[in-house]
Model the fold of this input.
Amino acid sequence: MAVMDSAVAREQALDAAEELFYGRGVQAVGMDDIRGASGVSLKRLYQLFPAKEQLVEAYLERRDVRWRNRLAAFVARREDPRERILAVFDWLEEWFGEDGFRGCAWINSYGELGATSPRVAAQVRAHKDAFRAYLAGLVADAGLPGALAGQLFLLAEGAMVTAGITGQTGPAREAREAARLLVRAG
Amino acid sequence: MAVMDSAVAREQALDAAEELFYGRGVQAVGMDDIRGASGVSLKRLYQLFPAKEQLVEAYLERRDVRWRNRLAAFVARREDPRERILAVFDWLEEWFGEDGFRGCAWINSYGELGATSPRVAAQVRAHKDAFRAYLAGLVADAGLPGALAGQLFLLAEGAMVTAGITGQTGPAREAREAARLLVRAG
DNA sequence: ACCGTAGGAGAACGCTCGTTCTCACGTCAA
DNA sequence: TTGACGTGAGAACGAGCGTTCTCCTACGGT
Done:
């Protein structure tokens, strides 16, 4: 492969890392697999990410930004504050239906590495906190009681985990219906 | 260690497997760790479980039986059918508060091995199906609409995952409150 | 044109770990 | 007593993989 700008190589490495780590699990993917899929040489990889764990962290961080941006962009298309809350679950359904969907990357990573890598565990907690805070914002904007946010969060987490395990999109609709009832009750 | 009955050795191996696999993750625990913690020699271990994957399967299967029995025994103490539904979440709170709680063993195992071990993935699905069916039974006994079972299931899964990641018991109470509202609405 | 440097390909190193093998010992049947 | 057998302790084997090193090529500045 020809000489390549560092920023480009970094993105290609992260593209490969995301596809492989998410699809097969972190531990099942070697640095050599990343090289093969990205075309970035091992030497370059280790210049950009001095150890595999740092590549994992960078993968989770980039995915976190993208994931939350995609969600927020989808939700922002709705006007009504209560509709926005339900739109979260509509977006989950879209996500669950994508090719290669294999559950929540953070939940999976936590199961794989949470017990052995404090840094990954902290990143998972940060991601989930950010998602919960986002939901709390939507709930506040709709003038609904704060306790609702935690309940919606649990529904969304349950849907992610269940969709990941079963490979079906149905959990998103079930969660949406439960959310609708809770919003109405709130 | 003295000569040991096979059944006893098997239980000791599974005791060690459960403690270590659950506490540290499957991949972070070697067969030698199992030997050290159980006192069962490697030769014996491989007689009882011809490969590590079979030890993992036996661990998940024994834990599945015990987990569901514990839950059912706790719930059965309540008389009122609707109270029984809420008791599921009371039991979750107890479970989350136990020493060494580190989330749902099946969700964690799925994150770790779901992509690489079809047998483990199938066991996770079977466990979750059984839990969902149990909830559906409680819902039917209470004369509530069947759709409620899926919603309660998602709340419970969300609570497990969130309690595992945060190490707190609060998600059980949040899920219980949401369940109470959904039961009342149903 | 020439040299210093960066980069790519891939071999090599060292460690971990699943699995098997060796060997010595104790037990029990004949 | 003897010898076949099962067992425990632990060495050994072989593969996988994170990480580093070697060697060679190509390019950029002077």
Observations:
- Residues 1, 3-4, 41-44 of chain B lie near DNA strand D (CB under 10 Å from a C1').
- The mean pLDDT of chain B is 96.
- The two ends of chain B are 59 Å apart (CA to CA).
- The domain at 1-50 of chain B is CATH 1.10.10 (Arc Repressor Mutant, subunit A).
